[in-house]
Each structure stands twice: as C-alpha cells, then as structure tokens.
Amino acid sequence: MNLENTQVQMRKGILEYCILHIISRGEVYASDMLDELTSARMIVVEGTLYPLLTRLKNSGLVEYKWVESKSGPPRKYYKLTNLGADFLKGLTDTWEELVHSTEQITHKSQTTV
Description:
Layout: H1 3-24, E1 28-29, H2 30-39, H3 46-58, E2 62-69, E3 72-80, H4 82-106
Antiparallel strand pairs: 1-3, 2-3
Helix pairs in contact: 1-4
C-alpha cells in the first residue's frame, strides 16, 4: 500500500463536500475556491476543480453568472441552487455521522483478550 495514494483518495472523497461548503457562503470565483482549498492543504489543481464544477452545475446543484472584470475577461461566479443547499445538508449530516463513527472507532482503547 502506498500512503500517499491513500491520502489523495481520502482528499478526493471529501472534495465535493468542501467545494459545496465554500460555495454555500455566497457567490464565489473559481480561483478563490482554489486558494481556499490550497490554504487548507486540500491539494487541488484547475484540472480537477473545473470538471467538478461542471458536474455540479449539470446536476443542478450550482449555477453561475458572468461578471465583468476590470482587469481582464469576465469572471464566472458560482452559487448554490436550492437543490444544492438541500444536497449539502444531506452531505453535512453524513459527514457528521462519519466523523462520530470514526472517532468512536479510533479513540477506543485497546482491549486485551
């Protein structure tokens, strides 16, 4: 087993949840999402983020609008739809259950047989 591969898979598993959470705070530009994910040590590249944002849009969970920029081309700002907010709520419930279950298992004392 390769530790680094497992760590990457764990991060990928929660990336969608993290992205939806970032978007839930208000309209956000993709590069701002990348900055926040990177600063939180969620190693993400544009080639991962943009296809995921497209899938979220095609699923009706996010929508975007174009906003003119003073320093270049128009920017795409993402926000959650009502369906996206409901989906995020479901993911949050699942996340909290997983954290609780994981802590229950990993913090249990070793018993002798």
